[in-house]
Amino acid sequence: MKYSKDTIDIQITSCLSGQYTQIKVRDNGIGIPLAAQRIVFDKFERVITRNEDAKKKVSGFGLGLNYVMNVAREHGGYVSVESVEGKYSEFTVSLPLPVENEE
């Protein structure tokens, strides 16, 4: 939401995918350049966009997505991003389904 356009549209969905439950959060923001998608989860990383004015107006330390990634990993899951500059970003948190005990 920090990097969204004037009119913010957030979609949150969930689904099952194999042995994982997935939570997807999609916005209509300014998007993330393809090269930056590889580093967006790195600690202290703030994405450089073509719209530098947007970055200057946004406060933060580049920790939020790193925290999300670490929490997902601690639970045996992972986080991914899909983004198109100028259109949207979609983050998917995938967490393993609980294993039922066989008795």
From TrEMBL:
Pfam families per the UniProt record, alphabetical: HATPase_c
Catalytic activity, EC: 2.7.13.3
Domain Histidine kinase residue range list: 1-99
InterPro entries listed in its UniProt record: HATPase_C_sf, HATPase_dom, His_kinase_dom, Sig_transdc_His_kin-like_C
Segments forming a coiled coil: none
Enzyme type, top EC level: transferase
One term of GO molecular function: phosphorelay sensor kinase activity
Aminoacyl-tRNA synthetase among keywords: no
Keyword Kinase belongs to the record: yes
Recorded superkingdom: Bacteria
Catalysed reactions, as listed in the record: ATP + protein L-histidine = ADP + protein N-phospho-L-histidine
SMART domains: HATPase_c
Record keywords: Kinase, Phosphoprotein, Transferase
Protein name: histidine kinase
Species: Bacteroides intestinalis
